[in-house]
TrEMBL record:
Alphabetized InterPro entries for the sequence: DUF620 (IPR006873)
Single GO molecular function: methyltransferase activity
Origin species: Hibiscus syriacus (Rose of Sharon)
Record's signal peptide: none
An annotated GO BP: methylation
Protein name: Ribosomal RNA large subunit methyltransferase I-like
Coiled-coil segments: none
Top-level taxon in the UniProt lineage: Eukaryota
Length: 397
């Protein structure tokens, strides 16, 4: 994995929720920035965009990162890449994997909404081929490669000053940034053991889980572990592993029906319980909720849309700040791979919203990812548990 021969780095615990964490400018890498937390880095991102918007070199008619050959666009591009890799790089699913398998749940003496959700999940497993091809859905391991295109679409700041009580002014800090392309490789051995390597814009993010510890490494922040219970990689449940996806919705409720595009869908909702959420708290940051929604086609039975919403409160002096991150993914192009239907492309739209209880100023940033799967292989020869051992420097003091 390329992490064993690195120099020693300081380690700290940091959640792997869809919050910002990204590359650091080499010129300021020695200024103690590695001690910053994810909410501090994402706040700095919004502040940088705001400061750049006030620069005389920006007329607000074109995105800042479209201007070549100056320090202003370099800062904007760096912040765009931070957001993209932090939010869409390797977020985890909202809830931990259950200890039981989905087919062991007996739909009796449970609310009707849960019973309906269980039936929909069984239909999903059948539609994806998992009930017929158990040897593949329960494969020893899986390998997948894919391509991504990421772009920051817009950043906006809303302020209530100067327009009277109850009114606000919304200022756009640029429209669409430069599109960045990349690729990724995913390995999985059982749902709780996985590894990811993602390269975008010349920057690499490596993450993994050995079933006990979830970790992430970047060259600019070193290696750190996730707090809380083990959770699967969100990229895997976007149509790559139907059985893991079904397990996450084992305790879901059916909210009803909704039309997504041309498809009538059943909507399933599952929330992280309070105990699991509290385990992810860190310092002044408190996770309020993390919810997952699945939209399953009534016609095909397949998962065609996935959305999770994550809310964190950061306690500060005078005014608590709230970060709400929402990621919605369209899942398309299901193809047969050894008897199992695997989604081969999709689009994710993420929104990061910052607001305070007393502050009149709010910030919102929107970004997109287009992803496609190039190859999927089950039961790769030679892949063992040794491939998922965390890097040694995660245990450094």
């Amino acid at each position: 994995m390329g992490t064993r021969a690195r120099r020693k780095q300081s380690w700290y615990k940091q959640t792997l929720t869809p919050l910002m964490e990204g590359p650091m400018d080499p010129e300021i890498q020695d200024e103690g920035s590695k001690k910053e937390r994810s909410w501090e880095l994402i706040g700095e991102c919004f502040r940088t965009h705001k400061d750049l918007s006030l620069s005389p070199t920006n007329n607000n008619s074109f995105p800042l990162s479209d201007y070549p050959g100056s320090n202003v666009p370099a800062a904007a591009k760096r912040q765009d890449l931070r957001l993209l890799l932090g939010v869409l790089g390797c977020p985890l699913a909202p809830i931990p994997l259950p200890d039981h398998q989905i087919h062991h749940i007996l739909p009796k003496d449970i609310p009707v909404q849960v019973s309906m959700a269980h039936y929909i999940i069984q239909q999903y497993l059948a539609a994806s081929g998992c009930l017929k091809q158990r040897q593949n859905c329960g494969a020893k391991n899986m390998f997948a490669t894919g391509s991504v295109k990421m772009v920051c679409c817009e950043t906006e700041i809303s302020t209530g000053t100067g327009l009277g009580k109850g009114k606000s002014m919304v200022k756009s800090l640029g429209r669409r940034s430069e599109e960045m392309t990349g690729c990724f490789v995913v390995w999985q051995m059982k749902p709780e053991m996985w590894s990811l390597e993602l390269v975008v814009g010349g920057n690499k993010v490596i993450a993994g889980s050995d079933g006990k510890t979830v970790w992430r490494h970047t060259s600019w922040l070193g290696t750190h572990a996730a707090k809380g219970p083990r959770r699967p990689l969100r990229r895997i449940i976007q149509g790559l592993d139907p059985r893991t996806t079904a397990s996450l919705f084992a305790k879901a409720q059916c909210l009803g029906e909704k039309r997504i595009g041309d498809e009538d869908c059943f909507v399933l909702k599952v929330s992280a319980d309070r105990a699991a959420v509290m385990e992810r708290n860190e310092g002044p940051a408190e996770v309020i909720r993390h919810v997952l929604y699945g939209y399953f086609s009534q016609k095909s039975g397949l998962l065609i849309y996935l959305e999770d919403s994550h809310l964190t409160r950061v306690q500060t002096q005078g005014d608590d700040a709230y970060w709400e991150t929402t990621i919605g993914s369209s899942i398309e192009d299901y193809r047969d791979v050894d008897g199992v239907l695997i989604a081969h492309q999709g689009r994710s739209i993420a929104t990061v919203f910052l607001f305070g209880e007393q502050s009149m100023q709010h910030s919102r940033s929107r970004m997109e990812e287009f992803w496609s799967i190039d190859d999927v292989v089950f039961n790769v020869q030679g892949l063992s548990i040794d491939s998922f051992i965390p890097p040694a420097d995660i245990f450094d003091p």
